[in-house]
Amino acid sequence: MNSLTHEIYNELKAIYEHKIIRCDRASLFDQLNPNTQLLGIEKLINNTRFKYFPSHFSSLDNFKDKSLFDNSSKIINGEPVSIGAFPFMASLGYLRLDGYFHSCGATIVTDQHVMTAAHCVNKLGNSYNYTDYFLSKNQVLVVIVGTNSISGYNFLSLFQSNDIYLVRTISYNTAYTEVTSPADIAILKLDKKIVFNERISKIRLGESNDPSVIYGKKGIITGWGYTEKGKISEWLLFGRVTVLNNQNNPDCSSFENTQYCLEDLSGRESNACFGDSGGPLLRFENNVWVQYGIASFVYTNPNSTCANQLPSFYAMVPVLKSWALDQIQSN
Q1: Are residues 210 and 164 part of one domain?
Q2: Calpha distance 46→137 (Å, rounded)
Q3: Which of 95, 182, 217, 309 sits in a 20 to 30 Å window from 211, CA-based?
Q4: Same domain, 30 and 112
Q5: CA 147 to CA 324: how far, in whole Å?
Q6: How many angstroms separate the CA atoms of 56 and 227, rounded?
Q7: Do 29 and 70 fall into the same domain?
Q8: Cα atoms found within 13 Å of the Cα of residue 67, Cβ hemisphere only
Q9: Is residue 251 within 8 Å of residue 194, measured between CB atoms?
Q10: What are the b/e assignments for 87-107, b being 16+ CB within 10 Å?
Q11: What is the pLDDT of residue 49?
Q12: Predicted TM-score of the model (pTM)
């Protein structure tokens, strides 16, 4: 098989091998002929003007000009994965007396830090104090790890779980000043260390500081955002995208030097949408997942729905990595 088919095969194997339940028959991928022509995975859907990716639970304060920008996206036309397929994924949201409300995606970068988009937390500020916030808002910002489903969580079960963590401090990049700012990144420190296991581990960040190393290449995006059904997904979804920077795509031209411009070229139109903000752009390299981007903004349609036929834009981790590492070391 050619190199592209081999790359797709390895990525799909890494995802789907977690779906195989122990049984007497051989694994699906042990039976699969590597020369089989693999179909493209559906992408996440976006909106036809720029918008943030937060979920519908997010405050409207997260939106600028709603007719143009939106950062509250979710994966549209994505495909669900089993628990442990993306062990570094985290759901960032608000815990209230009436339950848990997903806001954004995040990734585990150390045993006490997660990385997300600045626009997911900038309204809370870098001086965020969870005690004061709870007393004033009757809710707290939390991170849930080690799960592929965010359905059915309630106040009691969350506190009985070891997979929920209070956000203790927020460090968002203050260079982020508007929807399309390139510095859409934040590091959150948790109140205690994450316990790693087969379901939970940290992500590896790309070693190169040059964002162009993945121009023209394939990637994976993941999230719990809005789907093609117009609702937040209860299940973690993924979609396949191509990095279109420097590919002469007119829909990328305004931002291709500052953000990753991503689109599903398979015809299935998977894309990011509301609730996917802060989630990763991933590549499977040397048998490990590597993060290159952070979901930032998308095009939206006039009716404020995600435009899955147009690109989505992700902050460039290679450019922002040194800032992120500084925040981790100082917090």
Answers
A1: yes
A2: 31
A3: 309
A4: no
A5: 25
A6: 12
A7: no
A8: 1
A9: no
A10: bbbbbbbbbeeeebbbbbbbb
A11: 34
A12: 0.76
